[in-house]
Amino acid sequence: METANNLEIVHDVFPYLQVYKNGTIKRLVGTEFTAATYDPQTGVSSKDVSVNPKTGISARIYRPNSSTKGKKLPLVVYFHGGAFCISSVADPKYHDSLNVFVSKANVVLVSVDYRLAPEHPLPAAYDDSWSVLKWVAAHNSKQGSEVWLKELVDFDSVFLAGDSAGANISHFTAIRAGESDEGNLLGVKISGMVMICPYFWGEEPIGIEIQDPVRKSMVDKWWEFVCPSNKGNNDPLINPFVDEAPNLEGVACDRVLVCVAEMDILRDRGILYYESLMKSQWKGKVEMIETKGEDHVFHIFNPNSEKALDLVKIWAAFINEKN
After folding, report:
1. How many Å apart are CA 65 and CA 161, to the nearest integer?
2. Which of 106, 39, 103, 95 is nearest to 72 (CA)?
3. Residues labelled catalytic
4. Which pLDDT belongs to residue 51?
5. 281: which DSSP letter?
6. What residues have CB less than 8 Å from 188, skipping those under 6 apart?
């Protein structure tokens, strides 16, 4: 029988999860499950695949069912959000929004089911995401066995995309792809990156954070929980603008789209990422859009709303733009 002492909450990571003294982790959101299947509303099919049975890393693959008449499609490797500690590829909110994305953009999409903190402390999420990208890229050299990737994908048009923590993962995956040894192992060039409400942070408040100390304090606790270190919220993994962070010029793609939302507490970090990339020695093209009157990752809560669909159209145009 559990004692009252063991049921004491030792970590309350609002609004995501609670950790009890006996080690039990209670996730408060992001635990729902929906199966991969054919979606009649969008005409998109999906299925789950195992990437590494030893570690349990998997992915959910989406494809449009419309006839492409032999034409190869762009590939999007997508990293979901959730502050590194909640959600999954089976989360109905992500599943529904990605069905819409795949339908509107006419792409093949691989949604990465990386392992979560605190059971799997960082950098597990980054390493898992890199492993899935390598697994995907192997199909370009005929080493993979997944039919949808082998038959449908144009490996000259590969994009990274993610929201919140997933956008953070996208950035560091692109940095890793730019490192000579790692990039050579990948064997695929990344065409572009879509950063949606990116989760970056820092010790000193900027912009909207200055006027909102309550939410600032809440976000401070997220990173301190998933990545406890003496660097706090100036850890280079959450603050890519500190001196010890990898240079932004190492982002291994030619085009980046940064999407922010006006009411989002993380908005100004996304703007700073855009501005810093513009000022860096990076040779690519970066664009930024801001959705007025909306908050953090609003598109996944109502993927068929007018503003969410407008955002998806922008992603689709970005991905399908011909250089």
Report:
1. 22
2. 106
3. 164, 264, 296
4. 96
5. S
6. 136, 137, 140, 155, 158
Tokens in use for 181? 């040894």
The residues pairing with 123 across neighbouring beta strands, listed in sequence order, are none
Task: Kindly state the average pLDDT of the residues 52-57.
Answer: 92
Tokens of 208: 């909207």
Q: How confident is the model at residue 98 (pLDDT cuts 50, 70, 90)?
A: very high
Instruction: Note if the bond before 123 is cis, omega within 30 degrees.
Output: yes
Give the torsion sign (CA, 25, 227, 233, 169): negative
Lookup: tokens for 38: 């054919």
DSSP 141: G
The token pair that represents 157 in the structure block: 């048009």
Alpha-carbon separation of residue 116 from 97, 166, 215 (angstroms): 21, 12, 23
Strand order in the sheet with 108-113: 38-39, 44-52, 57-64, 108-113, 73-79, 153-163, 190-196, 255-261, 285-291
Q: Which residues contact 123 (CB under 8 A, 6 or more apart)?
A: 237
Question: What's CA 317's distance to the chain center, in Å?
Answer: 19
Structure tokens at 23: 């080690």
Q: Report the alpha-carbon distance of residue 311 to residue 317 in Å, rounded.
A: 10
Answer whether 44's CB lies under 8 Å from 101's CB: no
Angle among Cα 283, 289, 294 to the nearest 5 degrees reads 150
What type of residue is 102? V
Question: Residue written as tokens 């000193």?
Answer: 204
| Residue 119 vs residues 20, 23, 124, 164, 243: alpha-carbon distances, Å | 13, 10, 10, 20, 30
Torsion of CA 10, 13, 16, 18, to 10 degrees: 0
Mean pLDDT (whole number) for 93-116: 97
- Joined tokens for residue 150: 């082998």
Mean pLDDT score, 80-98 = 98
